[in-house]
Amino acid sequence: MITLAAMSEKPGISSKRVYGVQFWMLCLSTFLFFTSFNMIIPELPSYLTSMGGEDYKGLIISLFTLTAGISRPFSGKLADTVGRIPVMVFGSIVCVICAFLYPFFGTMWGFFLLRLVHGFSTGFQPTGTSAYVADLIPFRRRGEALGLLGLFVSLGFAVGPAVGAYLAQLMSVEVMFYTSSAAALLSVLVLVGMKETLSPTQRFHGSHLKIDRHDIFEPKVLSPSLVMMLTGFSFGTILTIIPDFSDFLGISNRGMFFTAFTMASISVRVLAGKASDRFGRVNVLKIATAALALSMYLIGAANSFYSFIGAAVLFGLASGISSPTIFAWTIDLSSEAHRGRGMATMFIALEMGIGSGALISGWLYSNDSGMFAYTFWLCSILAFVAFLYVNLGTFGSTKQG
Fold it and tell me: Could you give the domains of the chain?
C-alpha cells in the first residue's frame, strides 16, 4: 500500500497536504485540453455534411479513437520511462496543430486525415494525466482525487461544446477551430511549468517506441477495462448521433445536451469518488451501470426538449459516478512501476468502446430518423451487460476491488 509518507518523497509533493499546487495546475491544464477537444464536437457532423460526407458521420469519432487506441501502448510505455509530463505535452500539442489546420483541409478526405492525427491527442494526454495523479495522491484518497480531476474534465465538456456552438453560429466554424487551438496551447503552457513526478526518468530514445505484447495489455486491469469498454459504447453513440437528434427534436443549439449531461456529471463526481474510496469500486459501479442503462433507454424514448434534457441529466449522473470509479479501480490494480501501462490498457478499452459505438451507431442510424430509438436502446442493452458483470463477477474482498 502506498502511504502518504512515501508519496512525500516524490518531487513537489508535501506530506502535509494532499492537494498541492501541482495537482491544481494539472486540473487547469486538463480543463483547457478537454475544452479544446470538445469545442468542435457538436459542429463536426454538419461541417462534414457541408463537404458532402453526410453518409460517413460515424467516422468522425471512430477514426479519432482508432489512432487514440493505437497510441495507448506507446503513451503508457513512455509515461513509465520518459515521464508523465512529456506525454501530456505531446498530446496537447497535437490538439494545437490539428485544431488550427481544420480550416485549411477543406475536403472530406483531408478532414478524415486530420481526425486520424487528432486522435493521438487523447491517446497521450489522459494517460500521462492519470499516472501523474497516481503519483501525487495517496491510496485512500485516490477516488476522491480522480473525482476532483474529473470535475475539471466535465467542465471542459460543458464549456467546450457551448462555446464552440456559440462561436460557430455567431462568427464562423473557422473561428471555432482557431479558438480550440488556442485553448490547447494554454494547456501546454501550464504543463511546462509543472514538476515531473516520475523518478528516475530516461532520455527519449527510439527503442522506447518498440512495443511488445506486455506493453499492449496489462492483465491485472481486465475487469475495469471490460466495464469501461461496455459503457464507453454509449459515449461513442452520444458523440455521433446527439447533434442530429437535437436537430430532429428542434433544438437549435447542438451543445445543449452536452452541457446538461456535463453539469450533472460535475455535480456528482467528487461524491462518487469519495463513495468508491469508502464503499468500494464495484459497489459504486453497480449503481452507475444501472443508471447508464436507464438513461440510454430514456434518450431513445425522448420526444421533447424536457424529456431529452432529463435523460441527458441522468446520463451525466451515471457518467460522473462511473468514470472516477473505473479510473481509481484501474490504478488500484496496477503495479507502481507500470501505472502508465495499466492506464493505457484501460484507455484502449475506452477507445474500443467509443470507436465501436460511433461506427456502429452511425451505420445503424444511417440518417434515418426512425432509427434513433433503436440506436440508443442498443447502448442500453450493453450498459445492462456491464451491470450484470459487476453484480455477478468475483473481484476479491478488498474495498477497492
Answer: 19-198+214-392 (1.20.1250.20)
